[in-house]
Write a structure and sequence with these properties.
Elements lengths: L13 H5 L3 H7 L7 E4 L7 E7 L2 E7 L3 E2 L3 E5 L4 H15 L7 E5 L4 E5 L5 E2 H7 L6 H15 L7 H12 L2 H10 L18 H8 L2 H16 L3 E3 L8 E3 L4 E3 L6 E3 L2 H17 L10 H28 L17 H32 L5 H4 L4 H20 L7 H11 L1
Antiparallel strand pairs: 1-2, 2-3, 3-7, 4-5, 6-7, 8-10, 9-12, 10-11
This protein binds adenosine-5'-diphosphate and magnesium ion (MG) (3 copies).
């Protein structure tokens, strides 16, 4: 049979197109003509609709054959929706309750129908507003440990892991975005780059910094070659939705097999950027309490990640690596603990590097963060961004000799 032609949904056509699905009638209401549809996508790439009716509401997310932010001149394949769907169902399995439930997937139309998170808001917006979120550090640290451990050769059967490696290896175009926009473009005068004019001098310095360029390429080398687990791939504070008591991770369309340290580093980097942006959001009062909260969250994410990863190492190490037959089963529990320390040590070092270059690409590259962009005074914005750029340079270049988060909190305070 011919492949079914792709047609982009509109609020007007959506009820007719999806109204025949029982799973949606049950969740929204049995009469599709009574569904109310709003397009709410604020992302860069896709269409997102809220569909509401008498029985409830769902989210309908549809990929377009191009980058929404730029238009048809930048084509991007529909299959990213297939990777998002496959990542969501795996994450739901590996850390239950942390991603929206999927109700329906249509591969030809690149549609994922999922749970409407309500009254959740995007974490980045909450941090800009200065909201304290008591559960976020533990939730995100556990999510990282569980998804990264359970998607790897430490846990999966060799066949299942290799089949997933092959499945996600086709996500070439979204990896290509990261490979260029994150690891290379910030370090030369690439066409899509922009930065706050006040940063001209510092930007020239960073682009002439040979040690930094070598580190950025070493990290890119890890990104493309170290296929150790299924990553979210875009785990910044705009891909996390929150209430005071609940945390959910959305938007895993960049999922692929890559280095464990990437998701953790990108996440911590976005909390550090929030820290450096706080000075730009003090019109209605000091953000000192917020700064302490953010430093605490960074500690808590890392400590929870280490604790949960270690727990899984001791209780769920069922894959082909560091087998129990070599260690515990021979009475050498210490050997397994030493191997764990070494694995965590490597993740720590690489995590710092990914965190550093994520800061650079968000300030020098194409995709900027609302944390800084919402600071209207360009002198103030530039000062916040300069501190983050210097901090990021330190993380990337000195990552092998940084021993803990306490020293980094001190450095952040001095630069801020
Ligand atoms: P993109 O891939 O285009 O970035 P996202 O998945 O990030 O799309 O979604 C864009 C926006 O739509 C989010 O920032 C959020 O505001 C909203 N959104 C997405 N998924 C949900 C959901 N499950 N529940 C509620 N809002 C959502
Ligand atoms: Mg998004
Ligand atoms: Mg978004
Ligand atoms: Mg996305």
């Amino acid at each position: 049979a011919d492949a079914e032609a792709f047609v982009a949904l509109t609020p007007e056509t959506l009820p007719t197109k999806l109204g025949g699905l029982d799973v949606l009638k049950t969740r929204i209401g049995s009469d599709p003509s009574a569904w109310r549809v709003r397009e709410v996508g604020d992302g860069n790439l896709n269409l997102v609709f809220i569909v509401e009716g008498p029985a409830g509401a769902v989210i309908v997310k549809q990929a377009l054959p191009y980058v929404r932010l730029v238009g048809e001149s930048w084509p991007l394949p529909l299959k990213r929706s297939y990777f998002e769907y496959n990542a969501l169902i795996r994450q739901a399995d590996r850390d239950p309750g942390m991603v929206p439930e999927v109700f329906h997937f249509d591969r030809a139309q690149a549609i994922v129908v999922m749970e409407f998170l309500n009254p959740h808001i995007i974490l980045r917006q909450a941090l800009i507003r200065g909201e304290i979120l008591p559960k976020i550090g533990k939730d995100l640290g556990r999510f990282a440990a569980r998804t990264l451990f359970r998607g790897s050769d430490l846990s999966m059967s060799a066949r299942a892991r290799k089949e997933d490696l092959a499945l996600f290896a086709d996500n070439v175009e979204l990896c290509d975005i990261t490979e260029n926009l994150v690891f290379s473009d910030p370090y030369f005068e690439a066409e899509l780059n922009r930065h706050t004019p006040q940063l001209d001098g510092l930007v020239a310095e960073l682009r002439a910094d040979r040690d930094l360029k070598v580190e950025a390429q070493a990290l890119k080398h890890l990104f493309v070659a170290k296929a150790e687990t299924m990553l979210h791939g875009d785990l910044h504070t705009g891909s996390i939705m929150v209430t005071k008591n609940d945390t959910k991770v959305i938007d895993p369309e960049f999922a692929f097999y890559g280095p464990m340290a990437l998701d953790v580093g990108m996440m911590l980097s976005n909390f550090w950027m929030s820290y450096f942006s706080q000075r730009g959001h003090e019109e209605s009062g000091s953000r000192d309490e917020m700064r302490r909260f953010l430093i605490g969250v960074i500690d808590e994410i890392w400590e929870t990640f280490v604790a949960e990863f270690s727990h899984l190492w001791r209780t769920e190490r069922t894959g082909i690596l560091y087998q129990r037959s070599l260690f515990e089963d021979r009475g050498d529990a210490l050997g397994a603990e030493l191997a764990l320390s070494r694995v965590l040590g490597d993740i720590w070092t690489d995590m710092l590097g990914f965190a550093g270059i994520e800061m650079h690409r968000r300030i020098l590259g194409l995709a900027h963060n609302a944390d800084f962009e919402t600071i209207a005074d360009l002198d103030l914005r530039g000062a916040c961004e300069a501190a983050a750029l210097k901090f990021g340079r330190h993380l990337a270049v000195n990552r092998r000799s940084i021993t803990g988060l306490t020293a980094l909190a001190g450095l952040a305070e001095r630069l801020d």
